[in-house]
Amino acid sequence: MTAMVVGLFLLSFVYTPHDPNEMQLTMRFIGPGENPRYILGTDYFGRDILSRIIYGSRSIVLVSFVAVTLGSVVGSLLGAVAGMVKKGPLSAIIMRAIDGLMAFPGILLAMMMVAAIGKGQEGAIVAISVFMIPPFARLVYSLILDSETHLFIKAASSYNISRCRLLFKHYLPLLLPRLITLFTACIGTAIMIETSLSFLGLGVQPPHASWGLMLNEARQHFLQYPYLAMTPGIAIALSVLGFNLLGDGLNDALSKRRSR
Fold first, then answer.
1. Chain-centre distance for alpha carbon 53
2. H helix count then E strand count, the chain
3. What is the pLDDT of residues 128-179, one digit of tens each?
C-alpha cells in the first residue's frame, strides 16, 4: 500500500490519463466502468477522477514527507539539547514548551497555524511540521536519559569529550532505529492532517487536485453519486494504513535486531 502511494506520486510527474483540471460539462457524473476512457468516472465538472487521484498524490506525499522531515529535525535537536544539558533551566524551558504544544489537538493546532500563515501547501507544511515536533523531542529526550546508564556511554563521558561528539558518535546510533520507526508512523498522521486541512479548505486550493478537497467537493452529491467520495476516501485510508503497517514492521524488525 505504501508502494502504491509512492508509485502514484512518481507516476503523476510523467503520466495522467487526462488533464486533472480539465472540465468537460458534457461528461459529468460518468460512473466507474461506464466509459473505458474514464475508469473511475468523472465528477460534477466532468473531470477524470483517476487523473485527479494520481495528481492528488503529489500533495499527499510532498506535504507529508517535507512536514515530517522538518518536524523530526527540529524536534530531535530540541530533545537532544534538553537531554544533554539534563536538569538545567534550558532543559526545563524546552520540555515545558513541548508539553504546551502537545496540549493542543493536532487538527486544531494545524488550523490555527494555517490561519496565521495562510492557506495552501506552504501553510500546511509549516502547520504539520510544528505538530510533529513534540513526539520527536520527547522520544530523543527520554532515550538520552535512559541511555546514560549504558557502560559505553559512561566510559565515553569519562574521557571528557564534547557533548556534541558524544551525541553524534554514541547516542545517535542508539536513537536512529527508533527515529526511523517514529518517522514512518508519523507519515500516516501527517496524511490525515493534510487531507483534513484540504477538506476544510485550508490546504491545497482549487482547481488543483487533492484527496481531501475531492472529498469536500463530493459532499453535496454523495447520496446520488457515492463513488465521488468513495474513491478518494479509499485512497486516504489505504495510504494511512500502509504507512502505519510499515512503521509497525520496521519497529518489529529493529526490535529483533536490538535484542540480538
1. 18
2. 10, 0
3. 898 899 999 999 888 887 777 666 666 666 666 766 767 777 677 778 888 8
- Residue 76 grid cell: 530531535
Distance, CA of 136 to CA of 133 (rounded, Å): 6
Q: Are 108 and 49 spatial neighbours (Cβ–Cβ below 8 Å)?
A: no
Using CA atoms, how far apart are residues 228 and 235, in angstroms rounded to an integer? Answer: 12
Residue 102 φ then ψ, to 5°: -70, -15
Name the residue ranges covered by the structural domains of the chain. 57-259
Tens of pLDDT, residue by residue over 40-97, are 989 888 899 999 999 989 888 899 999 999 999 999 999 888 888 776 788 888 888 8
Whole-angstrom distance, CA of residue 242 vs CA of residue 181:
13
Q: Under a CB-based contact definition with an 8 Å cutoff, are residues 41 and 99 in contact?
A: no
Task: Specify the pTM.
Answer: 0.86
Whose cell is 495528481? That residue is 55
Cα separation, 204 vs 194, in Å, equals 9
Q: Which residue has the cell 488550523?
A: 111
Are residues 136 and 182 in contact, defined by beta-carbon separation less than 8 angstroms?
yes
Cell readout for 176 is 536512529
CA atoms of 56 and 51, how far apart (whole Å): 8
What fold, for 57-259?
MetI-like fold (1.10.3720)
